[in-house]
Amino acid sequence: MPKKLLVANRGEIAVRVLRACAELAIPSVAVFSDADCSAPHAMLADEAVRLGEAEAKSSYLDIGKIIDAAQTVGADAIHPGYGFLSESAQFAAACQAAGITFVGPSAATIEALGDKASARRLAVEAGVPVVPGQQIESDEELEQLAKQVGFPLLIKAIAGGGGKGMRVVRDPADLQHAFELARREAVASFNNPAMLIERLIERPRHIEVQILADNHGHCVFLGERECSIQRRHQKIIEECPSPAVDADLRQRIGSAAVAVARAAGYTNAGTVEFLLDENGDFYFLEVNTRLQVEHPITEEVTGIDLVHQQLRIADGLPLELEQDRIVIRGHAIEARVYAEDPARDFAPSPGRIHVLDEPHGPGVRVDSGVRAAMDVPVYYDPILSKVIAWAPTREAAIARLDRALADYVLLGFATNISLMRHVLGHPAFRQGQLSTGFITEHLLDRQTALWSAPLPSEQTEALAAALSADARVSSTDGAPQTVAAVRQTPWEQLANWRVR
Amino acid sequence: MSRRVTVISNEVPRTFDIKQSDGQYQVAADGGSSQCFRLTQIEGHRFLLVDESGQRIVHTVRDGQTLFLHVDGHCYTFALPNKHGQRRGAKRGGEVLAPMPGKVTRIYVEVGQAVESSEALYALEAMKMESVVRAPVAGRVTAIRSAVGDQVEGGARVLDFEAERSSEASG
């Protein structure tokens, strides 16, 4: 195990990894930016090192500063969390060059899987299905390629994004016209006429497989996660197992994930993402070469602590897990709490948390990176915490998560909590009828103003009126207590004076 | 002795007559029904609400002219009118206030420029997301107070904007 671990991240994932350090009796080091000097992660670790100004590029994305910090405090391993530098091959290589263990796959693996085209090639070589499609080299081969790919299909610009230069074609008679329109858009928007043709997967589900691989050629999968409930291509609710995956499909998709991992020479924890269509066919999407936000649901149903496993693997220890002894027990669902306002098109809503009361109770886990009287900074991702509910059945897990979200008190700015309760209560969700278009299909045409909370009843308004006139209600005047001021004084330097 | 209190609920002012004695409330909606409940402070932000349907815990805090309230599993935000009967931060015709704190990443307009309703004025970036702030009505930009790269507070006046005469700004 590492002698001292530096966590190169912030927020709930830094807290999660720091807790694992405490459990394994590994001395821990946090890093923080000026916006985070009194954030929970910065205070939880055994030591904390300031990286720099709030902007991520001056702090959590600055490879040089993080390596320096590790060397200054004598950390021999770095856990990158997710986001920031977690999928940077350059960072993994810099750690290696400095003689520091990077908790994750090798730089070469990160690089090979980070490039979508090369990851797709790896999957194809491993015999894993990918969404049928290819680049259209010349106008003449369009019809031939369309026949190979099959209808309905998608014509899209290689340089595309935001739906521009993209056309869905259902009828072969529309093919030529759609192609020309899409290409014209591609040239106008991206100045690049290169086009792809791809099978259209209708109402796809996002299914991903957690894998663990050690440095000795042993690789296992830990069931799947369904992450179809998304807004703006960002997951908000994930569950394990997927209501669409039975034991046979689990075995096939799990084996496919392991095949991709082996082909890539993968080590440590990783996630292989797939699309699952309505016929139960799955297609490789990409590999995330890091711990995922939604990893806790896998931990809850398998009883395996993924961060502990990551640290063991990084230390060169062999996996002690046998595939046929990894059992999915019960059902787990996670809801991501974001500082964003669903009523205003999910605009970020950073601000001060005046009151925070997180849920508790059997089967409820809260991985949180925030505290009361904290200013949630504008500089980083809006994720605040994750609420994970476990229960023996899906139905009971949904009820438990809904109860926990109802108990989640965060006063100070808009969050997506009520929206998630709305999703959990939706008949299509209860029936497991999920697809990546769920929010758009079932909720977007509703009055979006209702999303941050249901319209208050007259009783609620009367209560608000009573409270607004009640002298006992506390006001938030005055700045919250922070350790920011302490960090500026020489006392902070004490750590460096300590006799070693 | 009764007291008239207004709260603004989703932009709509709601006025109640409140009688209060020792945490026991009788609240009557303007020209509507009346309800009774008792509010006992448990500690700090936490109160126990008891009415004829039973009891529950509510959390509440006041931040300036905003009242936050968590009850029945949802968080509600109410604006409170200030002394002049006007909501703090209310949009007057000539103001386009930053809808959130963030960094000004783009300014699409110049001083003196006439803009159509909903034309893009500037873009703000917060939490890795960029949002475009648009003109609420047709009008003219009279001053620009921030530069690209500036970090601004929520409610900051990034630029001055004058609504066209005929628009609702005069009202």
Give the helices and strands, then pairings:
The complex is a heterodimer of chains A (500) and B (171).
Chain A: E1 5-7, H1 11-23, E2 28-33, H2 40-44, E3 47-52, H3 63-73, E4 77-79, H4 89-97, E5 101-102, H5 107-114, H6 116-125, E6 133-136, H7 142-149, E7 153-161, E8 164-169, H8 175-190, E9 195-199, E10 205-213, E11 219-231, E12 234-240, H9 247-263, E13 268-276, E14 282-288, H10 295-302, H11 306-314, E15 331-338, E16 340-341, E17 347-348, E18 352-353, E19 355-357, E20 364-368, E21 374-375, E22 383-391, H12 394-406, E23 409-411, H13 417-425, H14 427-430, H15 438-442, H16 458-468, H17 484-488, H18 494-497
Parallel strand pairs in A: 1-2, 1-4, 2-3, 4-5
Antiparallel strand pairs in A: 6-9, 7-8, 7-9, 10-11, 10-13, 11-12, 12-15, 13-14, 15-22, 16-17, 18-21, 19-23, 20-22
Helix pairs in contact in A: 4-5, 12-13
Chain B: E1 2-9, E2 12-21, E3 24-29, E4 34-43, E5 46-51, E6 54-63, E7 66-71, E8 74-79, E9 95-97, E10 102-107, E11 114-115, E12 120-126, E13 129-134, E14 139-144, E15 151-152, E16 157-163
Antiparallel strand pairs in B: 1-2, 2-3, 3-4, 4-5, 5-6, 6-7, 7-8, 9-16, 10-12, 10-15, 11-14, 12-13, 14-16
